[in-house]
Each structure stands twice: as structure tokens, then as C-alpha cells.
Amino acid sequence: MKKSNNTGANGEMTRMDVEHIFKFRCASNVPCFTDCCRDITIVLSPYDVLRLKNALNLQSDEFLDRHTIIIRREKLLIPMVVLKMNEDDKRCPFVTEEGCSVYADRPWPCRMYPLNMNDDGTFSLITDSSRCKGLEENDKNRISNWLIEQGVPMYDEMNHLFSEVTTPLKAQELDIDNPKIYQMTFMSLYNLDKFRDFVFKSTFIDRFELDDLTIEKLKRGDVELLKFAFDWLKFGIFGQKTFQVKESEKPKGDPIE
Ligand code: SF4
Ligand code: SF4
Q: Whole-model pTM?
């Protein structure tokens, strides 16, 4: 097996910082073109789902039904949402002869490939040049620039907001097995069209202090709505003061139910 241009002499993983320059170029004339879009596990974040369902012009629940596998994890409130590969050839449903048909809205892991971000903020290669021939090319990429070219920062921003919900859950090892809370959490994160109905077609607006500008933004943009959903969960699960109940509505029971 050939060593990649970022693997140490003993084959250990090399950690690279954002200013590191790595050699890589992916194009339709590489012999492995689209090989990496097959038989892989791509975990989708709420923002990945939002981008993909809009790119495909699907409602959130249609997208979830057709294109994902939802894996419940014991004692964890948030399931794993995985992109479903084709049953027959195990290829990604979005790959074509010409490449990725959802390229502008491809998920975070596809943007990062062949890099991965480590917990300490460094980067490493998740493959090598025996499989990814793009790593044999001579194009030099500074990681910081390359991430911007791949459109990663917006995904990182949204994933950071998502982590403000997931990190405290992990830290507190909250054992929430109330099905209503699970359903509300799942809807808020992954079924944004249903969450929009929940906000605008229930008594929600009557119960919380929301100014007109915020309401208008929520009506217009999915990104604002997802950020709002993160805040809603922080309020509902952790009791953070991200929402204010209208005086006329106090006191009420558990807000998330
Ligand atoms: S394996 Fe590497 S070079 Fe080949 S198509 Fe995928 S990213 Fe491009
Ligand atoms: S979404 Fe696009 S880049 Fe990602 S695996 Fe599918 S075809 Fe490949």
C-alpha cells in the first residue's frame, strides 16, 4: 500500500494544522472518480438535512423517508441520521457519471473528504493514495483556504450551534426516554417543515414573546428556523433562557410537551 503524502514514516496518522499544505486534486479524469461515493456511512447533521431536502425540493419528512436511516441509540435523545445508500450497488443515490448531483448542497463529510477534523482541531487524512488517487496529484492546498473553497465554514457554524444541544446532553448523560420529548426533539432538528407548522400553526406564537422581525425571519428562512429550533431545545430540555413565556401564559407545565 502506498503511503499518502501526509502519513508518517511508521504509518501513524499525521495531524495537520489549518496552515498545513497538502497535495490533492479531485477531478473527473482521476481513475477513482466517484469511487468514494459508494458503500460509506455519512452521518447527516440537521443542517445537512436542511440543505439536501431543499436541493431536492422535498419536504423534510419525504427526504427522511426516502434517503435516510434513523438509528435510535440507547439512552440517547438524539438519534443518528445516516444517508441511505442504494440497496443494490451500495452507491450514494446522488452520484452520477458526471459526479455529485447535489454538489452545491453536499453534506459536511463529503466537503471535508479526504480530510477529517480531529477533536483537538487539527486535521488528518481519512484515506490514502491507494484509494484516493487525488492524493497523488501535485496541486497544493493550504487547509484554511481549501475549507473555504469547499464551503465548510457555514456548516461548521451550524454544527457548532447543534453541538450546543448535543454536548450538554452527553455531559449530563440525561436519560430521557419520554417519547413525546424524543419526537419533539427529532422534529425540531430534522423535520424542519413540520417544526415550521408547529411554530406557526399551533398556539406557539401566542405563548412566547417574539418580535415581528423574528417572526418574519422565521417565515422566510430555513436557516433562521433551524437556529430557532436549537434555541427551542435549549429552552425545553435544559431550561436555558432562550425563550420568554408571555406573562399571560404563566405558569405552564413542561414547555416541550
Ligand atoms: S477517491 Fe479521491 S480523487 Fe477519487 S473521486 Fe474520491 S475524492 Fe476524488
Ligand atoms: S452526496 Fe455527493 S459527494 Fe456525497 S457521497 Fe453522495 S454523490 Fe458523493
A: 0.90
